[in-house]
Amino acid sequence: MNINTAAEYICNYPDIYVDNLKLQKLLFYAQAVSLVLGKKPLFQDKIEAWDYGPVVPCIYRKYKKYDAQIPKKKTTQKGHEDPECFHWIDLALSHYGDMTGSQLITLTHSEKPWQTAYAKGRNTEITKTSIKAFYSKIFHYA
Fold first, then answer.
1. Do the beta carbons of residue 3 and residue 84 sit within 8 Å?
2. Which is nearest to 75 in space by CA: 16, 13, 2, 23?
3. Residue 49 contacts by C-beta under 8 Å, 6 or more apart in sequence?
4. Spatial separation of the C-alpha atoms in residues 27 and 87, rounded to whole Å
5. For residues 66 and 19, is the Cβ–Cβ distance under 8 A?
6. Whether pTM exceeds 0.90
7. Dihedral of the CA atoms 116, 102, 31, 1 (nearest 10)?
8. What tens digit of pLDDT does each residue of 30-67 get?
9. pLDDT, tens only, 54-100
10. Strand order in the sheet with 47-50
C-alpha cells in the first residue's frame, strides 16, 4: 500500500481525532497488525524511533504544518489498493484509535520495538522483523 494512502485513510477515519503525533503511532500499529495478521507489510517505508515514539519520516514531514487536528477531506480515494490493507488499518484503529497521542507515546515507549531501536540512537529504524516478533506475542485476534 502507498504510505500516503494509508495516512490519508487514517486522517479521514470517522470519529477519530488525528494530529501528526497520533498519526505516526497509528501507522506504526497498523503496520504491526498487517505484519502479524496479514503476514506482510502494510507499507514499505521505514519507521524510525524518535523521542516521542515511532515515526514514518516522510509522513511526518508532509503533515507537520498542522499544529492540531489534521483536516478531514470530504472523500478518501482508495484507488487500486488491496482491500485487505484497509482491513488491517481498521483493525488497528478499532483498538488504538480512541487513545490520545500521549497515551500512544506511553504505550510505544513501554514496548520492545521502540525501546530497542531508540537505545541504539535517535532516529534508528524500527525493523519490520522486530515489530513482527514482538506483536506476534500480543495480537491474538483475526
1. no
2. 13
3. 55, 114, 117, 118, 120, 122, 123, 124, 125, 126
4. 13
5. yes
6. yes
7. -130
8. 999 999 999 999 999 999 999 999 999 999 999 999 87
9. 999 999 999 999 878 899 987 666 667 889 999 999 999 999 999 99
10. 53-55, 47-50, 124-126
What is the length of the chain? 142
Segments of 27-141 assigned E as strands: 47-50, 53-55, 124-126
Residue type, 99: M
Which three three-digit cell numbers place residue 82?
488491496
Residue 101 cell numbers, joined: 497521542
Cell 502507498 belongs to residue: 2
